[in-house]
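Running this now, will post back.
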Amino acid sequence: MPRFERTLTEAVHTPITPVFSTNNIGTLKRVVESGLGWGFLPLHSVQKQLRMGRLACVDIQDFAYTMNIMMYSSRSADIQPAAEVLYRALQTQNAA
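Update: finished.
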């Protein structure tokens, strides 16, 4: 995913180093769904989890990629607001 990481780094103006990386979307969805972290996933792969209320998404503005990608986290009341704040902080960290 070098192209995605490069595009994301340009959007948030700071490099983001993944702690966990896999080519298996199902594994990544389970990691995020269980509350162990957050991740960037294609919308088409998590629509069921969003409808069922197991995942929440953070809208990524000014980020153009070949497929609709958002940042996802567990819908937990503890994690969802923190994920939103984290992304906004990343986005503004080096923008100035």
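The chain has one domain: 2-93. More later if anyone needs it.
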